[in-house]
């Protein structure tokens, strides 16, 4: 309950605002609210999803111009034009997102600048939109018979939208879909390997951010009752991003803080700088530039986390609810072949990392893939899990060729993996990281999450994650940030994440690296238990004692090729292996 006090106080202050605040402050708050709505979208898109956009102002313009034109020219009701604006923005954003989101690195921000500028010039140059003079005479909005004529009245509508946007986005982030969105930032490879459709997830957050911007534009048009292209240019696009970054790009409330700070500061600087400097000009832009550099230097995550640190730490530990266990896939028949790889070759340009490799894994067996550094073991793993498909050869999982399957399709069929270089989301709890593994065992979408209609399923997913964390012996770290664990433990978290998908084949890339002796013993025990339950395990490992004491069969690789294959004892005695590999170790 105490946790909600600051929010309750904030809402109470807002509700009382128009009674005691001067009109000028209400106007300022209205703008803060409008900007915050756009910045909330950017928190989701850029802060959480890692996709930088400078072009959000153009979507604000789409919302504003759609309603301005349709209400003034054709007498449409503002509520109808809101729906039309959202539909139009959705369509435009889908198209732009489809094209730009494929671009990686700095091409994406550049792409957003390009369409931001294009839409701005479209608004300014299309005659029926009033050119650079814009459109006047936009009607007021009526809400349940109440006409919102003054800024005071509009204030309530704007801040209601802000609060609902915060609530919706926070709910979304605290869900299966939210974890998928957050997994984007950890690199698409891990998310895809856990079954997340990353292109779709990117489009979804891009659409949400665009729709929020459109909503802000619609509100703006009916508050101002006049639109012109200026507020929708690229400058404003940069300013929105600036607000989100300063406030705290990874935090929904940071958007409100950033919008508030920048708006008030801008107003203040515009009033005072000309007095101080004795001449007029846009000097605030220079101050903003310096402030941005300072914030990025001193508080990379923005000011919201700094503010949070000043408040007493609230018990944010998540409560786990008893929930019905998730259904499990039917186990493969004992001894049946799960995976076959034949003649697999993988080339990286001129380098042949895997050459004519073959292996198979059965249900209820531990198969180890060993070999010196650079032998090509991880490459083979990546070919099998379609993270980096083979150049030649045949791989079949459960009798089906994986040639046309993506990594997420293979995950859906029951193969799960860990990574040689741990791919966890360091700031997220161990519980949430492991729950990403259960992604494919849930089905609730973005809307259900935003409206909190996914709680039943969510409880089951989290209970499953908790079960796997207990199983791997990390119960006491369940609510710790994954990044705070020792590297060896992080590898174990990856195993729990893989297990949360209920796989029939588990691919473990160096699971024992960084573990202490007793932890290795416990891991070997766990893997034996999983094998006993009928799971197939393919293991890459350098620790020979661990491998030889656990594996049923061993494949030895050298220079990308298979050197030997057989039971551990036989492989250990093989002169070729002794010479090439084990000889150097023993
Ligand atoms: N994406 C890539 N692009 C180019 N070369 C690569 C790529 N991935 C791996 N290689 C090369 O392929 C060879 C095999 O690497 P791989 O990581 O599969 O070996 P490994 O047996 O897993 O080694 P280690 O035990 O050190 O992890 C190496 O020479 C490596 O540099």
UniProtKB/TrEMBL annotation:
It is found in: Cell membrane. Keywords: ATP-binding, Cell membrane, Membrane, Nucleotide-binding, Transmembrane, Transmembrane helix, Transport. It holds the Pfam family ABC_tran. It is a multi-pass membrane protein. It comes from the Bacteria. GO terms for molecular function: ATP binding; ATP hydrolysis activity; branched-chain amino acid transmembrane transporter activity. GO terms for cellular component: plasma membrane. Its main location: membrane. Residues 339-584 form the ABC transporter domain. The chain crosses the membrane at residues 28-45, 57-76, 82-101, 113-134, 154-173, 203-221, 241-264, 276-296. This is Amino acid/amide ABC transporter membrane protein 2 (HAAT family) /amino acid/amide ABC transporter ATP-binding protein 1 (HAAT family). It comes from Azonexus fungiphilus. The lineage of its organism: Bacteria, Pseudomonadati, Pseudomonadota, Betaproteobacteria, Rhodocyclales.
């Amino acid at each position: 309950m105490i946790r909600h006090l600051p929010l309750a106080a904030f809402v109470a202050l807002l509700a009382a605002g128009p009674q005691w605040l001067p009109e000028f402050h209400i106007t300022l708050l209205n703008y803060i609210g409008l900007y915050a709505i756009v910045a909330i979208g950017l928190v989701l898109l850029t802060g959480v999803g890692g996709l930088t956009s400078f072009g959000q102002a153009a979507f604000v313009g789409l919302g504003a111009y759609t309603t301005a034109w349709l209400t003034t020219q054709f007498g449409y009701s503002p509520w109808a034009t809101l729906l039309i604006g959202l539909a139009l923005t959705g369509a435009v954003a889908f198209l732009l997102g489809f094209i730009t989101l494929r671009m990686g690195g700095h091409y994406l921000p550049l792409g957003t600048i390009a369409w931001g500028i294009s839409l701005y010039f479209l608004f300014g140059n299309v005659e029926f939109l009033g050119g650079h003079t814009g459109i006047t005479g936009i009607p007021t909005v009526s809400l349940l018979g109440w006409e919102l004529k003054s800024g005071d009245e509009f204030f309530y509508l704007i801040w209601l939208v802000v609060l609902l946007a915060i609530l919706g986005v926070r709910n979304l982030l605290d869900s299966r879909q939210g974890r998928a969105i957050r997994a984007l930032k950890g690199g698409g490879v891990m998310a895809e390997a856990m079954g997340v459709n990353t292109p779709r997830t990117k489009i979804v957050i891009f659409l949400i951010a665009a729709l929020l911007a459109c909503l802000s534009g619609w509100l703006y048009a009916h508050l101002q009752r006049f639109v012109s292209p200026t507020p929708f240019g690229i400058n404003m696009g940069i300013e929105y991003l600036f607000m989100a970054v300063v406030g705290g790009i990874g935090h929904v409330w940071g958007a409100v803080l950033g919008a508030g700070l920048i708006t008030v500061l801008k107003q203040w600087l515009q009033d005072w700088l000309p007095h101080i400097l004795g001449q007029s000009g846009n000097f605030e832009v220079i101050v903003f530039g310096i402030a941005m550099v300072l914030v990025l230097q001193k508080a990379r995550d923005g000011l919201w986390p700094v503010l949070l640190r000043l408040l007493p730490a609230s018990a944010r530990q998540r409560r786990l609810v008893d929930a019905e266990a998730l259904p499990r896939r039917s186990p493969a028949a004992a001894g049946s072949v799960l995976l076959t790889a034949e003649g697999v070759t993988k080339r990286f340009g001129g380098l042949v990392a895997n050459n004519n490799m073959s292996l198979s894994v059965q249900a209820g067996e531990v198969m180890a893939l060993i070999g010196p550094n650079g032998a090509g073991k991880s490459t083979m793993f990546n070919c099998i899990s379609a993270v980096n498909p083979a150049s030649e050869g045949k791989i079949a999982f459960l009798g089906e060729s994986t040639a046309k399957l993506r990594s997420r399709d293979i995950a859906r069929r029951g193969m799960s993996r860990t990574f040689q270089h741990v791919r966890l989301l360091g700031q997220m709890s161990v519980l949430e990281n492991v729950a990403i593994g259960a992604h494919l065992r849930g089905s609730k979408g973005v809307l259900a999450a935003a409206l909190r209609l996914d709680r039943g399923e969510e409880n089951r997913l989290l209970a499953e994650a908790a079960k796997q964390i207990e199983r791997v012996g990390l119960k006491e770290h369940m609510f710790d940030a994954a990044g705070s664990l020792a590297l060896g433990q992080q590898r174990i978290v990856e195993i729990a994440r893989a297990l949360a998908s209920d796989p029939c084949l588990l691919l473990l890339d160096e699971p024992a690296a960084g573990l202490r002796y007793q932890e290795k013993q416990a891991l070997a025990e766990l893997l034996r238990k999983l094998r006993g339950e009928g799971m197939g395990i393919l293991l890459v490992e350098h620790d020979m004692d661990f491998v030889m004491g656990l594996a049923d069969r061993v494949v030895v690789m050298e220079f990308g090729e298979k050197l030997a294959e057989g039971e551990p004892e036989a492989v250990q005695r093989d002169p070729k292996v002794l010479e090439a590999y084990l000889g150097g170790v023993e």
